[in-house]
Amino acid sequence: MSAPHLRNPGDDALRQEWGTVVDNELRLDREAATRIVEALNADLSGLYILFNQLRKHYWTLEGAEVRPVVEFLEDAADRLSEATDEIAIRVHALGGVPVNGPMGIRQHAPMHIEGAAVYALRASLENDLEAYAILVAQLREHIELAAEIGDETTVEILREHLRTIEEDAHDVEKFLADDTLVRMDD
């Protein structure tokens, strides 16, 4: 049995094509807005990927001492969800269409999606830490871009989320430094 397809509303219902940037009420030049929208959509893609990866690990991790890791993953995924909402709203305010759906996410992704298999705790956390590192580097670049363009609101939004992501990455590093995780996976 094939899955039912959702129909696309007619052209008369279309407000804006994917991949376009229209004039915005923020009065930011369309060329500058386009550059920031492209950067923010890459950030959104990475945040979506990491969010889903953390949720997968939250659902599947096992072990005697996994409880604090699971609690962290649940909270960290919630923080990523908040970041995606704020950044997606900013993309729209800038006249763009926020990245959405698997195809758009893959098109803009700064990282590969982790395989569907279930991995050991240490390997899962190492994958998470790598994704955090990629996002941190990318967010720093995009903060510089937004500052160069003069979009201070985007700078503030990205700086706030960069701090949170760096703190969460540091927590993952602490879990990986824990000798008990070494014993669990050996």
UniProtKB/TrEMBL annotation:
<feature type="domain" description="Ferritin/DPS">
    <location>
        <begin position="38"/>
        <end position="179"/>
    </location>
</feature>
<dbReference type="InterPro" id="IPR009078">
    <property type="entry name" value="Ferritin-like_SF"/>
</dbReference>
<comment type="similarity">
    <text>Belongs to the Dps family.</text>
</comment>
<dbReference type="GO" id="GO:0008199">
    <property type="term" value="F:ferric iron binding"/>
</dbReference>
<protein>
    <submittedName>
        <fullName>DNA starvation/stationary phase protection protein DpsA</fullName>
    </submittedName>
</protein>
<dbReference type="Pfam" id="PF00210">
    <property type="entry name" value="Ferritin"/>
</dbReference>
<dbReference type="InterPro" id="IPR012347">
    <property type="entry name" value="Ferritin-like"/>
</dbReference>
<dbReference type="InterPro" id="IPR008331">
    <property type="entry name" value="Ferritin_DPS_dom"/>
</dbReference>
<dbReference type="InterPro" id="IPR002177">
    <property type="entry name" value="DPS_DNA-bd"/>
</dbReference>
<dbReference type="InterPro" id="IPR054862">
    <property type="entry name" value="DNA_prot_starvation"/>
</dbReference>
